[in-house]
């Protein structure tokens, strides 16, 4: 039996959280791609998924905002507090989305339809002052999956409410594409098999699905049939894994409380891992020296890693301690409790088989998380591959927090984007801390330069590393140039340059660049 569920969804929340008006032409851009837009930006043709340059070409006056999950969660905490008047069982899955079971509230407020309209009206009243009335959709259906899709459709409807009658969730889901299951690899296989809609996938026999796609396919098949991903637990309740952190003296700042949360999250993760379990729903509870008790549930469709738990606890603490004065606790935090409200069997890890993650990797990750808790987020960085044209863009130093693969959220970097002007593989291995000035000369000893059309003035013959040197090093091979006109829309960061690959007579291989008429060594091939 499915649980009747209400879901609140706001796809524009990353923009709303910036305090921008609905009439402002604003877009949130991460990894050079648009991730959220205001209605005014959409009216100008700016859509989610557009590249930054294309978005600014369509709308030259577009305001660009960087993503900030902490800000989004902090502001959304005040919206979740509004919904608390309907039920104490509010669960937050991500900033901009929350859910709760309707069985009790629906009876009290006169049915699912009336409850959904009351929730939508309260949120509209809170957002109306900034022009965002109607930006939130409310959906009610059997199970979280169907209710989420109903809420997303409701955003575009006049009353912003969509209620699916009990027992009709499977029929409602039938025309949706299989990509809505959130499993790209499975969706790709299903489409190649001719199963393009959830109804076609749901019509398959369970035994056939399990035989072909395994456990993950069975869970997706349940969603397509309008059932909860996991059936209700009917066995004895599991033993308690609650973790309690006591703060003395009481903490009134988020960073102090978050430090205790990191230690508690590591302990919770280790306890669950020792039992072969993973947390999918987390209850965060704080108690203050004024006798107050605040609690909130966070849901995650996958398994919450230690880093993911810390992120959600920090978001919630930020929402409580830095939220509106009417909702802020009057005392400092004296007690923090993390309760794994829902657990499932851990799917396990590949232990060092052809590049799989090893137990040593996991221990190293936990050690880095502890050091980061003591020194701060920016103090601990790791190399991370990203999209870009030059070697300094492809591999960067990124804060360790948020890089845990179990989080399931990803950074959304466009590794496979075209990146015109990108230096071909293999990438150089050594990057000097400072650009080394050089001269690239032709056979007559004249400087070589690159025209505006990306062509060389002459074939490069020698390289001179010192202006005082009379003789240079001969070039025995070269490739390029690769011209780049980067960030042309922003005068402060605009760069126009071209790169060459050179092989010298002494055996060295260099990646050099020319910018504003000056050559320099950008990287060295080892």
Uncertain spans: 231-237, 348-356, 402-413
Helix content: 25-40%
CATH topology of the domain at 243-369: Dna Ligase, domain 1
Specify Rg, calculated over alpha carbons: 27 Å
Total helices: the number is: 15
Can you walk through the features of this model?
It is a single chain. The chain is 31% helix and 27% strand. By secondary structure, the chain is an alpha+beta fold. Among the domains are: 174-224, Orthogonal Bundle (DNA polymerase, domain 1); 243-369, DNA polymerase, Y-family, little finger domain (Dna Ligase, domain 1); 436-525, no CATH class. The strands form four sheets. Strands 8-7-1-6-5-11-10-12-9 form a nine-stranded mixed beta sheet. A six-stranded antiparallel beta barrel has the order 15-16-17-18-19-20. It is globular, with a radius of gyration of 27 Å. The protein starts with a strand and ends with a strand. The model is unreliable at 231-237, 348-356 and 402-413 (pLDDT under 50).
């Amino acid at each position: 039996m499915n649980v009747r569920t209400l879901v609140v969804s706001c796809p524009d929340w990353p923009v709303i959280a910036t305090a921008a008006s609905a009439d402002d032409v604003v877009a949130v851009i991460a990894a050079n791609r648009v991730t959220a837009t205001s209605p005014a930006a959409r009216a100008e043709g700016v859509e989610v998924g557009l590249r930054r340059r294309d978005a600014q070409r369509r709308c030259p006056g577009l305001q660009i905002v960087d993503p900030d999950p902490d800000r989004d969660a902090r502001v959304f905490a005040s919206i979740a507090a509004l919904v608390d008047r309907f039920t104490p069982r509010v669960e937050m899955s991500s900033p901009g989305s929350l859910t709760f079971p309707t069985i009790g509230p629906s009876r009290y407020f006169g049915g699912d339809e009336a409850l959904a309209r009351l929730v939508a009206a309260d949120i509209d009243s809170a957002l109306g002052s900034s022009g965002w009335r109607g930006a939130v959709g409310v959906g009610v259906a059997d199970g979280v999956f169907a209710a989420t899709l109903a809420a997303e459709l409701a955003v575009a409807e006049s009353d912003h409410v969509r209620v699916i009658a009990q027992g009709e969730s499977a029929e409602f889901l039938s025309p949706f594409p299989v990509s809505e299951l959130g499993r790209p690899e499975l969706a790709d296989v299903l489409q190649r098999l001719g199963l393009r809609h959830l109804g076609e996938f749901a019509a398959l026999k369970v035994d056939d699905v399990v035989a072909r796609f395994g456990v993950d396919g069975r869970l997706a098949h349940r969603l397509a049939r309008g059932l909860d991903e996991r059936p209700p637990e009917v066995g004895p309740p599991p033993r308690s894994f609650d973790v309690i952190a006591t703060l003395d003296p009481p903490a009134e700042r988020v960073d102090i409380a978050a430090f205790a949360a990191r230690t508690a999250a590591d302990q919770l993760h280790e306890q669950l891992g020792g039992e072969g379990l993973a947390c999918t729903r987390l209850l965060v509870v704080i108690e203050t020296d004024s006798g107050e008790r605040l609690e909130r549930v966070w849901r995650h469709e996958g398994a919450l890693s230690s880093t993911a738990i810390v992120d959600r606890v920090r978001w919630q603490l930020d929402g409580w301690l830095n939220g509106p004065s009417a909702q802020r606790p009057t005392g400092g935090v004296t007690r923090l409790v993390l309760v794994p409200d829902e657990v499932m069997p851990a799917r396990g890890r590949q232990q060092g088989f052809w590049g799989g993650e090893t137990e040593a990797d996991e221990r190293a990750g936990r050690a880095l998380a502890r050091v980061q808790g003591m020194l701060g987020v920016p103090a601990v960085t790791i190399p991370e591959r990203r999209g870009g044209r030059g070697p300094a863009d492809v591999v960067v130093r990124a804060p360790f927090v948020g890089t845990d693969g179990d989080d399931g959220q990803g950074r959304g970097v466009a590794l496979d984007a075209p990146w015109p002007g990108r230096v071909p593989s293999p990438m150089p291995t050594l990057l000097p801390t400072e650009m080394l000035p050089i001269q690239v000369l032709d056979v007559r000893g004249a400087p070589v330069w690159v025209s505006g059309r990306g062509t060389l003035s002459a074939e490069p013959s020698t390289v001179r590393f010192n202006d005082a040197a009379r003789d240079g090093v001969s070039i025995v091979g070269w490739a390029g140039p690769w011209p780049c006109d980067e960030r042309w829309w922003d005068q402060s960061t605009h760069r126009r340059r071209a790169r060459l690959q050179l092989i010298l007579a002494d055996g060295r291989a260099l990646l050099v660049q020319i910018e504003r008429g000056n050559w320099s060594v950008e990287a060295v091939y080892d």
